[in-house]
Write a structure and sequence with these properties.
Elements lengths: L8 H13 L4 E7 L10 E2 L3 H10 L4 H8 L9 H7 L8 E4 L5 E2 L6 E6 H6 L1 H24 L5 E3 L8 H13 L4 E2 L2 H7 L9 H6 L3 H12 L4 E3 L5 H9 L7 E4 L4 H14 L6 E4 L5 H9 L6 E4 L1 H4 L10 E9 L2 E4 L14 E9 L11 E10 L9 E2 L2 E5 L2 E2 L6 H13 L3 H4 L9 E3 L1 H16 L1
Parallel strand pairs: 6-7, 6-11, 8-9, 9-10, 10-11, 15-19
Antiparallel strand pairs: 1-5, 1-12, 2-4, 3-5, 3-17, 12-13, 14-15, 14-16, 17-18
Helix pairs in contact: 2-6, 6-7, 6-13, 7-8, 11-12
C-alpha cells in the first residue's frame, strides 16, 4: 500500500506552501491521457479500488513527519504544519470515476478528485502510479483476450514483472481485462483470481524418463494435469502420452513452430483417443503472435502470456496526467486550463457520455445488444446528449467510499461486455482505428473563451 510519502517532493513543497499562504480552498483535478499510447485504440480503466484504498487510509506517521521536519527545503515552513496539520491529516474529498473495466479514450477522466487543494495536490503521484499501471495492463489484456476469440488466456508474467507487488497488481489488472486466471498465487489469495499452472522443464528433466515424469505428476493431479511436452522431442512426447494410460486435461507447447507442432500433436492425440486433451501454448506470446497462429487455423485451446502482458511491453507507460481543472476562489468555481504548446487541456469538471445504437439481441445491461458509436466529453453540470449513458459516478464522498466494493469477477464481466460493444475496428489490432470522441459545444465554448482571455493576459 502506498504511504503519505509515496509522492514527489514538489507535491509536499506546494502543500506546505498552500498551508503557509493560508490557501485551503477546494480544487478539482482530473486524471486522464491526452493521447492514447501507440498500439492502443482504447483503454480499460483499472486500479480504482486500490486508489480508493489509498485515499481512505492516507495519513502521516510520526516518523514521516519528523523526516519532513528535517528536510532543509522545509526548514522555513511554519511549525504548526508539522505539529498540528500533518498529524491530523486525512483525505476528506470527493472522487468521481468510471467503474473499472470501462473502455475509455483520450481526454476522458479516469478519475476526478475534488478536495481541499492541499489534499488534492498531495495524492497526484500515487494516483497516477496506481491507476496508470493497472490501466496499462488491463488495456493490454483486453487486446490479447479479444484476438484469442473465446480461448482462455492465463496471465503468466509474475517472474518478468517489475517487482512482486507489480506482479500481483498486474495479475489483477489482467484478470479484470478479461484473462481467465493467473499463475500468481499471491494474486489468487489477495484478489480471488482463479489460479492455474502446469509444470516446468525442470520437472521433466529431474526424471530419467519423460513419461515417468508425467505419470508421477498425474498421480497427484489426475485429470487436471497439463504436461509440458517440448523438453526433448515434442512429437515423440505426444506419441508417448497418446499411447499411455494417461489422460491429461492438456499438453503445453512452449517452443518451436507452434502452428506446425500443434497440428501434429492434435493429430496424434486424436488418433490415440485423446480428443478432450487440449493444446495450451506459451512462450513469449502477445496478441500479434496469437492472431497469427489462429489465422493459420492452429488447433490451440488456450494461451499463457507473460512478459508482454505483465509489463505491457509495447506500451509500458500510459502517459497519464493529473491536471487542475477548477479552483474555488471567493466562493466561486473558477475553471482552469493549460495552454502550453502540445499540452492543451480542457477546463472545468467533466463528464463523459457514451452513445449506443441498438443492434438486436439480448444484453445484460441495456436490454438489447448495443454498439457504442461515439462519446461526448461535456462539462459535468450540463445536460447529457439524448440517449447518452454517463460514464463517471461518484465513488467517494468526505473521504469514504459511497458504495460496496465490487467483486473483481463482476468488473471482469463488465470489461468483456463493454469492450464487445466497441466497433470491431477499434477492438482489432489495426493502427489507424479511431473511435469518435466529440467535445460538447458548451465545453468547447468555455475552452475558447478561456484561451482568448489567457492569451490576452
Amino acid at each position: 500500500m502506498p504511504t503519505a510519502l509515496s509522492t514527489d517532493l514538489y507535491q509536499l513543497t506546494m502543500m506546505a506552501g498552500y498551508y503557509a499562504a493560508g490557501i485551503h480552498d477546494h480544487a478539482s483535478f482530473e486524471l486522464y491521457v491526452r493521447d492514447l499510447p501507440r498500439h492502443r485504440s482504447y483503454l480499460v480503466a483499472a486500479g480504482l479500488e486500490q486508489a480508493l484504498d489509498f485515499l481512505e487510509t492516507l495519513a502521516f506517521t510520526q516518523g514521516e513527519i519528523e523526516y519532513l521536519r528535517k528536510l532543509p527545503i522545509l526548514s522555513q515552513v511554519p511549525r504548526a504544519f508539522f505539529d498540528d496539520y500533518l498529524p491530523s491529516f486525512r483525505f476528506t474529498g470527493e472522487v468521481c470515476a468510471p467503474p473499472e473495466g470501462t473502455p475509455l479514450f483520450e481526454h476522458q477522466p479516469l478519475l476526478r478528485v475534488t478536495a481541499p487543494i492541499l489534499e488534492a495536490q498531495l495524492v497526484e503521484t500515487a494516483l497516477l502510479a496506481i491507476v496508470g499501471f493497472q490501466t496499462s495492463i488491463a488495456s493490454k489484456a483486453a487486446r490479447i483476450v479479444e484476438v484469442s476469440a473465446g480461448r482462455p488466456v492465463i496471465e503468466f508474467g509474475g517472474r518478468r514483472a517489475h517487482g512482486t507487488e507489480a506482479a500481483a497488481l498486474a495479475a489483477r489488472a489482467a484478470y479484470l481485462g478479461g484473462c481467465a486466471g493467473t499463475s500468481n498465487t499471491e494474486a489468487g489469495l489477495r484478489f480471488g483470481i482463479p489460479v492455474s499452472g502446469t509444470m516446468a522443464h525442470s520437472w521433466v528433466m529431474t526424471f530419467e524418463d519423460e513419461l515417468e515424469a508425467f505419470r508421477v505428476f498425474a498421480r497427484l493431479y489426475g485429470d487436471r494435469s497439463v504436461f509440458l511436452i517440448d523438453t526433448y522431442d515434442t512429437v515423440a512426447a505426444a506419441r508417448r502420452v497418446a499411447g499411455s494410460e494417461l489422460r491429461p486435461s492438456a499438453v503445453r507447447l512452449d517452443s518451436g513452430n507452434i502452428v506446425e507442432l500443434s497440428r501434429k500433436v492434435r493429430e496424434i492425440l486424436d488418433a490415440g483417443g485423446r480428443h478432450d486433451t487440449g493444446i495450451f501454448v506459451s512462450g513469449d506470446l502477445d496478441e500479434h503472435k496469437i492472431a497469427a497462429f489462429l489465422s493459420q487455423r492452429a488447433p490451440l485451446n488456450g494461451f499463457g502470456v507473460g512478459t508482454a502482458l505483465s509489463t505491457s511491453r509495447d506500451a509500458p507507460a500510459l502517459g497519464a496526467i493529473y491536471k487542475l481543472v477548477e479552483v474555488h476562489r471567493h466562493g466561486e468555481r473558477v475553471p482552469t486550463m493549460k495552454l502550453s504548446p502540445g499540452k492543451l487541456s480542457y477546463p472545468g469538471r467533466k463528464q463523459a457520455w457514451r452513445i449506443f445504437e441498438r443492434t438486436g439481441g439480448e444484453d445484460l445491461e441495456y436490454g438489447q445488444r448495443a454498439c457504442a458509436v461515439r462519446d461526448v466529453l461535456a462539462l459535468a453540470d450540463e445536460p447529457g446528449p439524448s440517449g447518452g449513458v454517463p460514464l463517471l459516478d461518484q465513488v467517494m464522498a468526505d473521504g469514504k467510499r459511497t458504495g460496496e466494493r465490487p467483486a473483481l469477477s463482476d468488473l471482469r464481466e463488465r470489461c468483456l461486455r463493454e469492450v464487445a460493444q466497441l466497433p470491431a475496428d477499434v477492438r482489432g489490432l489495426g493502427e489507424n482505428a479511431r473511435y469518435p470522441v466529440v467535445v460538447s459545444r458548451r465545453l468547447q465554448a468555455l475552452a475558447d473563451s478561456l484561451t482568448e482571455s489567457l492569451d490576452g493576459a
